[in-house]
Amino acid sequence: MKYPVLGALALTLFCQVAASAQAVKSSRPASSVSHPARKKTPVAEAPVSAPAALPIPNWLPSTNPVQPAATLLHDLMDTKLDVRFDWAKQWLLGTASLTVRPHFYPQNQLVLDAKGFDIKGVELLNGGKKGKDLKYSYDKKKLTINLDRQYQRTEQYQVRIQYVAKPNELPKGGSEAITEDKGLYFINPLGTEKDKPRQIWTQGETEGSSCWFPTIDKPNQRMTQEISLTVESGFKTLSNGLLVSSRRNPDGTRTDVWKQSLPHAPYLAMLAVGDFAVVTDTWRGKPVEYYVDPPFQHTAKPVFGNTPEMLEFFSKKLGVDYPWEKYAQVAVHDFVSGAMENTTASTFQQQLVQFSSRELPDVSYESESVIAHELFHQWFGDYVTTESWANLPLNESFADYSELLWAEHKYGPDAAALVQQTKLRNYLEEAQTKREPLIRYRYADREDMFDRHSYDKGGRVLHMLRSYVGDDAFFAALNRYLNQNKFSATEIAKLRLAFEETTGEDLMWFFDQWFMQRGHPELRVTHSYESSQVVVRVQQVQDTLYQPVYRLPVVVATWNNNQPTEHRILVTKADQTFRLPTSQRPSLVKFDHEGVLLAHIDEAQSQEELLYQLSHARGYQQKYDAIQGLRSKSADLTVSSAFRNALNDPFWAVRVAALNGLRRYRGAEGNAVRKDLQRVALTEKKGVVRATAISVLSSFPNEDFNDVYATALKDSSYLVVGAAVEALSKAPTPTTRAQMAALQETKNSALLTALSNYYGLNGNLEDYQWFLRRSQDAPAEVLYVMLENFGTLMQRIPPIEREKGIQRLEFLARNHSQMYVRLGAYKGLHQLVASMPTLKPVLQDIRNKEKDTDLKSMYSLIQ
Asked: Family, per the entry (predicted)?
């Protein structure tokens, strides 16, 4: 499963709301928000520190119930499904034939997960078409079948169940990561939405498969599978495994049979039906396919085209060739998560491919990370599967880490360091309000596992493990783990044993402190030079009542004569001093020289050291850290000169960091700095760098850069156009309104967000209809910002004109499926309370009826 907004989005919004709670009436919304499938381009910025308004976290041990792996009474051996669809009623009409056997103890009863079905009949099959009717009971969640006799563990038997699945009649559920859990989804079933195709697709994780077929819906089950899909002749189908037959039926329909011959967990079963264009590729003779809407068939290769190279890279790196029969990737509309790693057939949100050729250069990086993540799951999650949701990091940490591995392979160590930095920041933001062990045997709901701990923290833990044991041992241990546990369920102890058997070292200390305990080290590091020695003091200042004092292997580098000397130390105490030999006072002492630790590090460095680090560092992270440490000194001539030099760094994210270091610059190099910024804005090759340069130019109040902004409005990159719109929002010119009017119909999210900011700050009654209209077709990640801007605009129009806008905001605040859209709508309404006190009881009612506890907490801060 990809990118649960997770927690990260909720936390980001929570921090934004908390930080501005005391000044909410005058606050301006951020220009964009995190989103599970469409992450922001990772622009290097300082990690967020906990706002004062945040509550003090409670690190007490969890009182949630223990959540063990499901007890295996039966082994689910094979599932055969024969299904067709009633589009008007949004039903699946199915026949399921399940082959099972008792796991160990004799059984005379079979209990299946089956949510919201009409059960038409249950038979025991004995080799013929006609089976033996079996008695059963059904409570709309569990189907309990009384067998004809007691079966031993050596005896397989087969039951056939005729049923109707009615997913829309299920109670509404879901989480931040997976916004709904009804398993089976009909998109535009009656064809009434003119801009959306008719589609059917499924989402099985965590226990959604049992919403469309009866099964034992637990991750520690394994089954082979055959699905016969009967559909209208114009539709394409996709499921797990290979298409083994396709026949036309007398009634004009077609039946496609998909067979998965290698076993996998039930939650990984999938189907998709729609008017797809199928773009074909290949890897080592295996089919690689991309299913997209026909208008985007020319986008498929630019987005998915690195998949064969990823298959080759991951296969060689792991020493385990991609194990499945084929690999397909399908983009569907209204998907309820970022993406899903169904075996042989990953599902993605439509937004992954819904780009014009103009947009592609700005989104290729984030698309690749999503694609790599889901592909790596085919080994970690599908080939080897967590035995329980408590062990979810055995799936998600590895998929998360694959994003760094791919960036490192394809784009080099700087790109990998940027992934490392971004992921570490994601976790540290979440850790401001939540700290849990990675492996959590206590949780309230299994969906709680889909957070930045399981993903980002887990990936950083794997990075430390790789650094500690070395590359050869790391990938040899992963090879051992995969081969020893293939086609089976696993737990954290098996991963530890694979590493111990490979390295010969007892690694219980590492796995215990990083996987089984909560928190992370918070380090204060100082150094001095005494008698041909560098004295390094490391203090662990985290609260150790419920977090450990960590054992930390770390590298400290001392720089002399423009060369680093690496010293490997082992931190084991809360306060520890190390003496490192050196022939002279070093120009730089750098703790965690390799940038490996999962920690919050407060390292004392002088301005001279930071300048030296910026000019001599060999990687992105150290350059970024130096720029961040020097930003408050940017008026100093030597600092601003160093930042200007960094504008020519080979890696784009360093250039972005240097630009941000010059934001609101007030030093002696003012003219030279502004010329450099304009040069970058107009000539830099990478769009995100040009956009950042424009944003930095706009930070200088009462200065005229309109020629630059006018050029930027015609830029090939929407990021740059959006940045120019944001800049003109702060200082509009007589021609700005006409320039904005020319952009009003854009479909690009970044530009649409920027336009809503412009009209929120500068619009009038004429722009009211624009908000009403665009709030109907804007994507969810735009609506969060747009709706608050709508409220800001309405403050400046007569109350008698606001009725339709207020109705729109109230409807979205109460009913939109995405919690952050509801939040944006609520904030938009809140903008109007001062001039319309009658809205106070409306807002109170929205708060009272909101079911999302995180969102209710955010509402409580907006007063």
From this structure: Belongs to the peptidase M1 family.
